Every structure is written in C-alpha cells, then in structure tokens.
Amino acid sequence: MGQSQGGLRAGPTSARQRPWTGQAIDACRTFSSRGGGKDGTSAKVCSIEVGFLCDFRDRIYRVDRKEARKRLDGRNGRLGSHLPWGDPRRGWEFVSAGHGNVPWEDVFRMLRSIGYDGPNSVEWEDAGMDRLMGAPQALAHLKRFDVDPPSASFDAAFGGCDN
User: Fold this and answer.
1) DSSP state of 15
2) Integer angstrom CA distances of residue 81 from 46, 89, 140
3) Which pLDDT tens digit goes with each residue over 41-100?
4) How much is the pLDDT for 129?
C-alpha cells in the first residue's frame, strides 16, 4: 500500500500559527510525498519569518504571493476573523501585494538561494481595493523582485585587479 500524499499550508488561518506545528512538519520529513505551500501573509500575521523557507526548502511545493497588514493597537488581535473583511477592528487584513508588511525582497532572495523553481501564484484578496486595479498592481510590484541571479560571484568582478 502506497503512502498518501498530504501537505500543510502556511497561512494565517492554518495550523501553522500554533507553536508545535513546526514539530509536526519535521515529522512529515520522513514521508517523501509530504510538503506544503507558503504564502506571504504568514510571514507577518503568524510571525513566521523568511527563515521558514530555508528550514523547509525540501518541502515547499508552491508559493502563493499574497499579503496581509497587521493593525495591532492593543484593542484587537490576530484572532479577529469573526469580524467581516474590511472591518477596522480586525487585527490583520489581507491586502494587495505591496500594501502590507511582507518583506518581499527577502522572500525572493531566499527562494533564489534555496533553488526554488516550483509554481508561484499571485493570490489577490483585498477588501479595500477593486480587484481589476489591485491584481495587476500586485503583479507589477512582485515582478520588481523577480530578477536573474548573477552569472558570477560578486568577488569575480574584481578578479583582474592587482590590489
């Protein structure tokens, strides 16, 4: 009997916001068909940092480029999902990429450094912006960071110097 495939998604409404989930993902490393996706909202809403990409590089099969903005003011929190989207009392909100707190340049650089070449998607969710304006704007913002890596090391540029 073969192993069933499965995965976890690192998002603000997933189990990843629980501190023991990293241990569960480590346990999944023993199954060759298990893995997960990563979306940018988790970097700020769930306090999962860019290092997550490096730690689980062999288990990232998809990257959703989406974003969130935290608005923690002492009267709200991360668990305000019972409130409607766009409600200013929420502690976080999905926003178009480029309008939140995700460190996109760090994300892109880390993905390049770990050799990620899997699928990417721009997942657009923003209660405060029309999708016909927000989705193309988010794509344009993200394309700024999608650059080719250098063909030679930084030090190689100085190879002919005598000093």
Assistant:
1) G
2) 13, 10, 29
3) 554 444 457 888 888 888 888 888 888 888 888 888 777 667 888 888 888 888 999 998
4) 92
Cα-based distances in Å from 36 to 15, 26, 39, 41, 133: 12, 12, 10, 15, 30
Using CA atoms, how far residue 63 sits from 55, 71, 96, 119, in Å, is 15, 24, 16, 6
Q: Are 33 and 53 in contact (CB under 8 A)?
A: no
Asked whether residue 7 carries a pLDDT value surpassing 60, the answer given is no
- Beta carbons of 120 and 63 less than 8 angstroms apart: yes
Nearby residues of 122 by Cβ (< 8 Å), 6 or more positions away: 65, 66, 97, 135, 138, 139, 142
- To the question of pTM greater than 0.70 for the whole model, the response is no
Q: Say how many residues make up the chain.
A: 163
Cα 25 from chain centre? 17
* Distance from C-alpha of 29 to C-alpha of 14, rounded to nearest angstrom: 19
Nearest to 125 by CA among 62, 81, 77: 81
**Residue 29: predicted pLDDT:** 53
Rounded CA Rg of the chain: 18
Could you tell me if 149 and 110 are in contact, meaning their C-beta atoms sit under 8 angstroms apart? no
